[in-house]
Amino acid sequence: xxxxxxxxxxxxxxxxxxxxxxxxxxxxxxxxxxxxxxxxxxxxxxxxxxxxxxxxxxxxxxxxxxxxxxxxxxxxxxxxxxxxxxxxxxxxxxxxxxxxxxxxxxxxxxxxxxxx
Amino acid sequence: xxxxxxxxxxxxxxxxxxxxxxxxxxxxxxxxxxxxxxxxxxxxxxxxxxxxxxxxxxxxxxxxxxxxxxxxxxxxxxxxxxxxxxxxxxxxxxxxxxxxxxxxxxxxxxxxx
Lengths: 116, 113
Fold this sequence. Notes:
The complex is a heterodimer. By secondary structure, chain A is mostly beta strands. Chain A contains no helices and twelve strands. By secondary structure, chain B is mainly β. Chain B is 0% helix and 50% strand. In chain B, the strands form two sheets. In chain B, strands 2, 4, 5, 6, 9, 10 and 11 form a seven-stranded mixed beta sheet that branches. In chain B, strands 1-3-8-7 form a four-stranded antiparallel beta sheet, with no helix packed on it. Chain A binds chain B through residues 33, 37, 42-47, 50, 91, 95, 97, 100-109, and chain B through 31, 33, 35, 41-45, 48, 50, 55-56, 58, 89, 91, 98-99, 101-107.
């Protein structure tokens, strides 16, 4: 079974600075998808960024980018120019690309605080 | 912007009672999911649903749980006889394609007393 580990329960960063959230995962599969979800106090989980394992290029979405290291099974999220609205729980998630597999496997989450 | 809507936002029920959690997925989506998050723990997959049947379920999703799409818009999770350990935040999600982005609702906090 696949597992996702986020080793940083909490992180904080000064507004406008850069922060990196760590995520590692364990799988025997070669094709899969990785995600970062943001969960603000409103509780609704919002997709931040997505990476397909077969793509070597790291995904980017505006201020958000990932460092995907397939061999190391590492998938970190970098937030540049941090804003107060970035404060939230961040979850790393894995989904298999096997036919019929749809479930997301989540990590424990990292609570990100932005200091003004 | 279309969104997944869950009702109620908070439900308190007595142990042993049946509870139904309701979700309205995004209208043109075909794949539906339930996840739960026990306070302080990770989000866990419960079940996925497509074409009016369960396509995948976790070991958590035992005989006490059932899902249904009773009409063209609602997607429900029923817990037949609630236990204290069912207290959690329950999230509904939907996606338009099998491997598309899952859009989550705001969750229903279930408290079993």
